[in-house]
Amino acid sequence: MRVDTLSYTHTMTSDLSAVFKAVMAEQLSYFQRQDASVLSLEEGTSITCHLLTKTQKIGVENTMTILKLEENRCIQMKTTSATGDIIQTYDFKEKGGNTLVTYSEKNMFEQSRNQFGFMLVGLLYKFFYNRGIKQRMTYLDSLADTRFN
């Protein structure tokens, strides 16, 4: 794995189509909280929001854009700020009657000092990242099971 990419794979018991719908519903809800005029998600859908940076916890304005949307296969977004870009990807696969979801974030920093800062805190951040993503994946599996199965 690259130093600038964080990745987590989770096995879900819910059907792949239901998991995909759950992730889409959550992403749509997030986009709508930022911009009520967003009615659906498609490639090119974009919002502006304020998020905290990973290393310095400073609030910065960001633009989130749906880059790729392949039903039951992939959702990819790009978050752009003055400090750089983050490509967030959900990949969906069926395996042995379960659904495998891999969520990854690829960080591309504008300044090398930001890249260096991320590398310094990377191992500690990865621990909290994995813990947070595991909780999110468990929630999405539950949502898929109760709302979309």
TrEMBL record:
SUPFAM superfamilies: Bet v1-like. Pfam families: DUF3284. It comes from the Bacteria. This is DUF3284 domain-containing protein. It comes from Enterococcus termitis.
